[in-house]
Amino acid sequence: MHLAVRIVRYAEMSLSVDIVVDECWDIETKVRYLRSMSEALQIEFQKWEGTGNTFVIIDGFKYAGFDLQSLDSKVINRICEQENTDGVIVLEASELPHVDLKCDYRNADGSRSFCGNGTRASFLYAKMQGWVVDEAIFEACDGLHKVKLNKDLDLPSVKFMPLSCPLDIDDDDFRGDFFIDTGSPHHVHVVHDTQTLDEFNIDAFGRRVRYHPRYAPDGTNVNVLCDLGEELLLRTYERGVEGETKACGTGAVAAALVHFTLHGGETQRKVKMPGGDLIVRFEPSKEGGDYNGVWLSGKASEMVRGILKVVTVFLLMLGQFPFSSHAQWYDNLSDEATVSVITLSPGQDTYAAFGHTAIRIYDPLEVPVVDWVFNYGTFSFDDGFYLNFMRGRLNYKLTAAPFYLFKSAYVDSGRGMFEQRLNLNASEVRDVAGYLSWNLQEENAVYRYEFFRDNCASRVIVVLEAALGDKLKTHCQADGRTFRDGLRPYIEGSPWTSLGMDFILGPRADAIMTECGASFIPDDLAEALKRMTVNDVPLTSENDWEDHFIVEGMWFSGLPAGDTKRHFPLFVTLFFLALIGSLRIMKAMKEAKSNHSSHSIYNVVRFFIAGIATTLGILLLLMWMLTDHSDTWGNYNLLWTLPAFVVFLPQSFKFKRKAIAAAATVIAAYLMLSPWLLPQFTSLSLWCGALAVFLTVAPLRYLHVRTRF
After folding, report:
1. 464 belongs to a structural domain
2. What is the CA radius of gyration of the chain?
3. What is the tens place of the pLDDT at every residue in 72-127?
4. Residue 143, in any domain of the structure
């Protein structure tokens, strides 16, 4: 189950499937197997940019043993379209001696070429992973390249292979243009003013040159160069992408060498492209004609992380989808097929703090064996994810994966796992599998995630009710707990998470959970399943329970019960409460003796506390007014956070004293009512924090009896 970002990690996933089939298999069975396998092909990635060029970078070490280099061009094209990138890079071990990594770059059309910006981004990626230090050697499709962090420029840099001098084109079609291969072929057209460059139809010109017979059959990249003296402006049409890109490293090198060929001068050029600036340094060969020591430098950074679901080449050629209803795979399940519910223990990360639930379909008699996990806890990590999450509009979807991959991913990370087999007959198993098959279709797979009411765990009941109908009796009972009570055991061991949850959740979290309301918690769902019946027969029992891996020690994550570190947030709020209280007393004593106001440390602490409180209040207000996170709406913590803004009112403000008195009154009312009457839980840490804000907002002289309000 997920509160924030959840990324599913599969440690051993293949993008190429070796299929050993018996000749007696019919075509439909083979196709069904391939369809099912495709759903498991999910790989982790990071999206990087290098001066405007964007790439999907895949850690090939995680998929050792699988031939990622053999990905079909259609798969590469789909990845680039899905993630809106210029290419795909797979980083893996090189078979060559004294080489640190192999950097396999694929253009959006699947073709291979050397990519300067992609190699620089890959170097920073590898450096962050700890694979290389400040210098390394990478293998690319055109040979070996040194990469390093340029200390002078503080930029990642890549060294090119020795390059030949640009060729002057003298045919009628492109007379006056140049051609040079910088690891990728580049045609360079020169213009002489920025207006011509801006108005140049590079897509039309690029297509004409890229597919010209002189560059057949592979084509070429096309550049338009404008000379501004010390700086060069460049636009590039990239083959493979088949359009203009924001930057091109090999194109920048081509432009720099063409400009040096025309004008000579310094052996360094700054090339400005729509995505940013690139620095090219080079050393002309003493014999003339060639260039050695060509270095490309520029910015690179990580953009986003996520997972990719990739369909195999065979399925792409068929144009069909995994578990398509055409195959009716669920109708072929044998009478030995079973349905199980899998429960996983909480993880160390906040998003995994409450555990996870999935559904398993297992048929040992089917050929090949059907053993699949259906997971309602997956989302598409697209460019709009963060904005949608902040707005409370997070779409999750159903996906499927082989059980052995699912199990290894969680067990290898130290997560506990148990399984409850459901007592369903063969027809009922097929009904559940049929519903899951329908739900897995692309048009049905997505649902709107709600933390308390619709997540990976509560979806299990939705599946059972939809597939079994009136035969299922849930026998759910409300036990008097609130939603916040349900969370408590899972966050007590993470004190700051607990404090944050208590602060951000509003009064709706303190509503009594309805019947089956606790099923949003995987452990509570597991208990609820024991009370359910199908045709008046228990749905599952202790005899149907199987432990796959039980965590040594406690099931819940975080600090163990009794650990004093669980109270650390309380100690922090008590510290600030004592600090502001003691400073107020000291200030009052000094003012009484010297008859003048003292500012010093007191005001620093006062502004600090008021600033933190005001910021938190604005956050709560934005969550209420601008998002669909309804469980944060109407938060009573607004009563002690937002009023702190009065501290920052200027002294010249006419009604400052009245505003401070009003703010202090509101906070005081909260302090008196929150433990008893307000319909929202207040922890001791938050109450002490509110008291510290009260002492910050309400200096005694502003509440003196002579103050009139």
Report:
1. yes
2. 32
3. 788 888 888 888 899 999 999 988 999 999 999 999 888 898 999 999 999 999 99
4. no
